[in-house]
Amino acid sequence: MTSPCIITVAITGSLPRKENNPSVPVTVAEQVEATHQAYEAGASLVHIHVRNDDQTPTSKPERFAEVQAGIMRHCPGMIIQFSTGGRSGVGTERGGMLPLRPDMASLSTGSCNFPSIVYLNPPDLILFLAEEMQKYQVRPEIEAFDLSMLYQAVRLAEEGKIPKPIHIQFVFGIKNAMPAIRQVLEFQVSELKRLMPDATWAAAGIGKHQLEVNQWTLELGGHCRTGLEDNVRFDKTRLAKNNAELVKRVADLCGKYNRHPATCDEARALLHLRPAETTSLPGFGEGVTRQRDGWGSSQPLSNKRSN
């Protein structure tokens, strides 16, 4: 028997541009198609940032709504996770898309240094975002860029501000934040298990650390994140062809560690999410389906892209 690994694909982010890799999806159509390709390659969760037409990041709810609707139509059952990250908006506007009720949203539980900025998450903003997620039944994924964010997440859960058990993602390799050191990951996982044994966890490696963090995570029993947001390269010799190529690499690695890519149903159960169901989106009509019969069962999209 193999154990499931939820593969998250972070398709776009706020920083990578087409000048860095032409396959970075920017338009709504590109993001939907990139997600569908990653879904077919084995991803069961998509982490979404949105962009303006000039590639600059934004938190516009309308953009999130368009991407969400396309993914729900073409990747039925896939877990949709919105970013509330600080590069895309200021203050409470970072949560302006939460009324769209995605399955999940990212929640950073502290501030830290990034390469050239302070990633600012003051306590009042953290509480606001947590309350909005509770209000709209959006499950948070804790984004831990340093050790203190783990303890803050546990405290918020104990106080009833976020649901138990928590799901946390440890992020490694951002300059001035947490370095990609395996012993650090092992300590964080042991602390999480000590403090909240039922919690689930994932890890992400930025840039050249992406593959090694994927391998550590598979071995230690966690869930994996990959995608062009974190690394526009496949290896030091070439750029990644697309998000799907990075997902397939993780899916192919699973067998080496007695794991398998989680189906959408498995991923939803592991993350304590509502089952996939037929629902409607504000402004997008009835009958958009969340149901998925099995991994890789949907029909491929056309390669033709439109704005």
Count of alpha/pi helices:
8
CA-CA gap between termini? 44 Å
Radius of gyration in whole Å, from Cα?
A: 18 Å
| Overall tally of structural domains | 1
Explain how this protein is built.
The longest helix has 14 residues. This protein is α/β, with parallel strands linked by helices. It has a single domain, classed as TIM Barrel (Alpha-Beta Barrel), CATH 3.20.20.70. Helices cover 32% and strands 20% of the residues. The relative contact order is 0.19. An eight-stranded parallel beta barrel has the order 2-3-6-7-10-11-12-13, surrounded by eight helices. The protein has a two-stranded parallel ribbon with strand order 1-16. Strands 4-5 form a two-stranded antiparallel ribbon. Helix 1 runs parallel beside helix 2.
Name the descriptors.
single chain, 307 residues, alpha/beta, TIM Barrel, two-stranded parallel ribbon, 8 helices, 18 strands, disordered C terminus
Please give a quick description of this structure.
Helices cover 32% and strands 20% of the residues. It has helices spanning 28-41, 61-74, 123-135, 147-158, 182-195, 210-220, 243-254, 264-270, and strands at 3-5, 7-10, 45-48, 50-51, 57-58, 79-82, 104-108, 112-113, 118-119, 139-144, 167-172, 200-205, 223-226, 233-235, 238-239, 259-261, 278-279, 288-289. The strands form 6 sheets. Strands 2-3-6-7-10-11-12-13 form an 8-stranded parallel barrel, surrounded by 8 helices. A two-stranded parallel sheet has the order 1-16. The chain has a two-stranded antiparallel sheet with strand order 4-5.
